[in-house]
Amino acid sequence: MKLYTYGTAPNPRKVAIFLKEKGIDYEAVEVDMMKGEHKTPEFLLKNPSGKLPVLELADGRYLAESIAICRYLEAEYPEPNLFGSDAYELGFIEMRNRQMETELWSQIGQSWVHGPIVAKMGIYRTIPEAKEVSDSNVKKYYERLDREFADNEYVAGDRFTVADITLLTGIDFASTLVGLKPDAALTNLWRWHALMLARESVDDIINANENS
Amino acid sequence: MKLYTYGTAPNPRKVAIFLKEKGIDYEAVEVDMMKGEHKTPEFLLKNPSGKLPVLELADGRYLAESIAICRYLEAEYPEPNLFGSDAYELGFIEMRNRQMETELWSQIGQSWVHGPIVAKMGIYRTIPEAKEVSDSNVKKYYERLDREFADNEYVAGDRFTVADITLLTGIDFASTLVGLKPDAALTNLWRWHALMLARESVDDIINANENS
Description:
By secondary structure, chain A is of the alpha+beta class. Chain A has helices at residues 10-22, 41-46, 66-76, 87-113, 116-121, 128-149, 162-177, 187-197, 200-210, and strands at 2-5, 27-30, 54-56, 62-64. Chain A is globular.
C-alpha cells in the first residue's frame, strides 16, 4: 500500500496518524506540491481532483479524500475501532468529525487561502476581508471547544476516535502555518492537546516533523 | 423517529430523500429558521450547533449533520445499500460524496452566504468579490461533472448512492435559491438530473415542493 503525501500538509497527516493507530505498514511517496507535482497529467490519473493524499492499493486501484481513505482502512482493518461500533456511535462520531470539518477546518481553510503564503503562490484571488471573518470564526470556535472539553475528554465522548485526529491536524496546521494558535488561556483545549501529543501515532507524525 | 427540518433547505432534504429511499416512516417537525427557531435555548439542547436537520431517536437521543444521520440510518436499516458494501466501495462512495461536498457544495455555500438573500438577513458580512470567485468555481465544476457523466451513469459508478443525493440537493439549492442553474448545454449533467427526478423519493421531496 502506498500513500501519496506531502511534508506537513494536514490532510495527508490525518491519514498517516490513522495508519499508525491501526499499525498498518505502508510506503510514503512524497509529491512536491510546491513544484505542482499533484497537477501533472500522470498524477491526475491517480486523482482527477489533483489533491493529496491518495492511497494506492496493492491491486493498483486508488482512493482520494483523507476520510474516505480512513473509512476504507477501517473496513479492512477493524481494530482498533476509530469510527464507531453500533449504529448510534457510527452516527455520533461522524457528526463530531463533520462538525470539526464544517465548523472549524472550513474556517481555517479560508484563512489559509486568503493568507500570505497562498498569496505568494498566486493561485487564488486573495480577499483580506474574508480572512478577517474566518480568523474571528476560528477564535470563537476554539472558545467553544474549550467549553466542550470541560466536560468531555475526547472530541466524540470518552474515547479516542477519528474526530480527534481531524481536530488535531486542523489545529496543528492552523498553529504552524496559518498564524491561528489557540490562546494559552484555553486550558481545557490544551489539556486535550497534551493528551493527543502523548500518543505514539501523533508523536511519530506531528512531533517528528516539528522537531526536524 | 422525528426529523427537525425546514422548508426547502438542502441539508434536511438530503435526509428526507434518504429516508424515502429506505422506506422509513418518520415525523417531520418544521423549525422556522426565518424566525430563528433553530437558535433558541430549547433547540440548542437538541443541537448545540444550531443547525438543521436534527434526528430525534425513539429513545430521545439526538443526531445532527445530515450525512451523520444518514450513516446512522444505513446501519439501522441496511437495505437498500446507499453507502457501499465492501471496503473499497465504502471508501469510493465516501470519496465521491465528499468531492461533491468539498468541491461543489462548499462553493455553492460561499455564493449563498455572500448573495442577496443572506445579505437581507444581516447575519453575515457580505463580500461581493468572494461571490464572484465561488460563482465561477461552481460553473467550472458543472462542466467537470458533465464530462464525468459522459462515462458514468451515477456519481459513484453504476448505481444510485448517497453521493447522488448530495449532488442533487446541492444543484437543486443552487438552481432555485442561489441563481446558479447549470447551463442547458451540459446535456450529460441534465441526463443524470432527469434520472434522479424519475425516482419516487426525489419526486416526493423535490418536485412536491417545487410544484407547490
